[in-house]
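Example 3.2
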Amino acid sequence: MADPDHVSVLTYLAMNHDERILKVDTVRAYYVGTKLLVELDIVLPKVMTLEMAHDIGEGLQHVLERQDFVERAFVHLDTEFEHRSSDEHRVR
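Structure, written as tokens:
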């Protein structure tokens, strides 16, 4: 399990990365060796272009990966947060 302070930093960075981010839905972080693998879900406006959404997600990925405690970050983009993540991303 990731250090709660690191999860707080990741959440803060995501919430403040871009004003068009409506919500930080989920932050997961797992140790892979001495650093973290991060999975982060953000909610963006439905009317946003794919190019804009991509640029926000990719930019956030780079910000997260610049943290010295992060090995790799995956940013998932969505337009709503009412679903169960277990339905969308089943662990097999």
